[in-house]
Amino acid sequence: MIARRTLLAAPLLALILLGGCHRHRYAGPIEVSVVGPALGSARPGFDRGPVEAPAATLIEATGQGLVRFDASGQIVPGVAARWIVTDNGRSLIFRLPDLPAPGTHPIDAADVARRIRAAIAPGSRNPLKPMLGAIDEVDAVTPQVIDVELKAPRPNLLQIFAQPGLAMGGQHRGPFALASLRDGVAVLAPLPDPDAAPEAGHLRRAPVVHLRGERAATAVARFAAGQSDLMLGGTFDDLPLAHVTSLPRDTLHFDPVKGLFGLAFSDNGSDLIVDSDNRRALAMVVDRDRIARLMGAPGWNPSPAIVAPGTPEIAGPVMPPWASRPLADRRADAARIITNWQAGGGKLAPLRVALPAGPGGRMLFASIAADWRAIGVQAIRVGPEEPADLRLVDEVAPADIASFYLRSFACERQVPCTPVSEKVLLAARSAPTLDERSVLLTQADALITQTVPFIAFGPPIRWSLVAQRLDLYHDSPRAFHPLNELRSPPKR
C-alpha cells in the first residue's frame, strides 16, 4: 500500500496549516482564487488556443454566450432571451432581447454570428471547434434573431454554446464589468440584474469580486487564513494540499463532473507500446481502486471505459473485456503477455510517463509504476512538456457528447489508431439521423477500446474551497461557478 504521507514533498509538509475566521457574512467584496497562472494585462481569447483557468473565469465573468450555465450546471438564457429547436434538431433559432440590459453594451445578431464564425473558421484554434463541426450556416436573420443551421442534429449543442469559449466579450457584456486589473488582481464590478424591478435593482446586484490566479498551495493557504472566500480549479494534482491543511468544516467541495482522466499512449513511443496486446497488459494491471483510495475524493468511481456513463448518444460505454475480472487474474495475464513479447525478441525500456509535478502526480505515478513493476515493466516520470510514451489527459467534458471522448483518440491526436475507426468517426459526424449517429459512435467506441490508445482511470477530479458565507454556491456537474451566483445580497 502506498502511503499518502510519504509521497508528499517536503515543501508541502512544511505548508503552514493556518486557521482563520472568514469575514462577516455580507461584508465586503468576494475574494476568489483560481488555480493557474496570474492574470495578465492582455485580454485573453479562445480562438488563439486553449486558455488557462483564471483567464477563462475572467472571460466568463465579463462576457457570456447565447446561453450560459447557472450555478447548478443548468442551461439558462445568456445573450439570447429565448430559443427554439426546429427542423428535427437541425436548426437552432435564438432571439436576443429587444432592448439591452441596463448598463450593458448592446449586442445584435450580426455580432453573435461573427463570434460563432470566428470559432469555426479554418484558422481557429478554439478548443471547442472539433465539437462545432455540425454547424453548416450561421445567419443573422434580423438584428434580434440568429439562425444556426446544422448538417445533422446535435441534441446537446446548447451545452457547447454555454462554454466561455463562445462568450461575447467586450466592455459591459457580461454579469460583471472589469473595473481594474492591477498586480494580477481583477476587480469585477457587478452590472445591474436585468430581471430586477427598477426600484429594487440595487438590492439584487451581486457583490464586487476580486479575482486572481495563483498556485494551488498559495490559494489553499490564503483560504485557510481567512483571506479568501473561494478557491476554484482544484485537480487531483493538488488535492493532497487540501487533505493536509487545517480547513474550516464543510468547506471542501467536489464537482460531480464527467470527462477524461487517464494516460494516453503516444503513437511514436517505445517498442513495447507499439503492440496493442502490450498496451492492453499495461491498462488491465492498473489498480484503480487503489488510485481512488489515494486520491480521497468522495464519490469518485474508477472506470476503465473511455466514454462516461450517461452520455445520451451511446446506450452504454464499451467496457474492455477484462474489466470484470479480478485484479490478480489480470495481473497474471498481463505478466504472461509481457513475458511472451520478450521471448519473441522484444526489448524492454523504461516507459516515460508525463505527469504534473504536484503531490497528486507523484502519488499517481508511484501507484501505476508499482503495478507495472509487478509485471516486469519499469517506468520513469517526466514533465508534462517532455517527450513521453504516455501522457496525462485530465479534461472535463464540455457537453454530454460522445464525440468529445472518441475524437480525443483520433489519429490527428498522435495516439495509436486505425483507419477503420477514423472512417467510422467521420461517418458519425455526418450521419443524417440521431439513430444512425448512435450506431456509428457505438461502433467507434468498440474499435477504439480494442485499439487501446488510453488507460482510463475514471472521471476527472475537480474540487473547490468555499466559505460558509457563499450561501448560493452549488457543486456543478460542469465545474462552472458563476461569480454572480455566490452570495445572497444584503437584507435591508
Structure commentary:
The chain has 15 helices and 18 strands. Strands 8-9-10-1-11-18-12 form a seven-stranded mixed sheet. A five-stranded mixed sheet has the order 15-14-16-13-17. It has a four-stranded antiparallel sheet with strand order 4-5-7-6, covered by helices on one side. Helix 10 packs antiparallel against helix 12. The protein starts with a helix and ends in a 26-residue tail after the last strand. Strand 14, helix 12 and strand 15 form a beta-alpha-beta unit. The protein has 492 residues and is of the alpha+beta class.
Q: What key phrases describe this protein's structure?
A:
single chain; 492 residues; alpha+beta; five-stranded mixed sheet; 15 helices; 28% helix; disordered N terminus
Compose a concise summary of this entry.
The protein is an alpha+beta fold and 492 residues long. The chain has helices at 4-7, 10-13, 53-62, 109-120, 157-161, 201-204, 216-224, 239-244, 276-284, 288-295, 327-343, 359-373, 402-406, 419-429, 434-451, and strands spanning 30-35, 67-69, 75-77, 82-86, 91-95, 135-142, 145-150, 176-182, 185-190, 209-214, 230-234, 252-255, 259-265, 351-354, 379-382, 390-396, 454-456, 462-466.
* Outline type: globular
Overall mean confidence score, pLDDT: 90
Strand content: 15-25%
Give, in spatial order, the strands making up the sheet with the most strands. 8-9-10-1-11-18-12
Low-confidence stretches: 1-23
Label the structural class. alpha+beta
Distance from N terminus to C terminus (CA atoms, Å) equals 56 Å
- Could you give a short account of the major beta sheet? 7 strands, mixed
In total, the number of strands is: 18
The DSSP helix count reads 15
Helix content: 25-40%
Radius of gyration: 24 Å
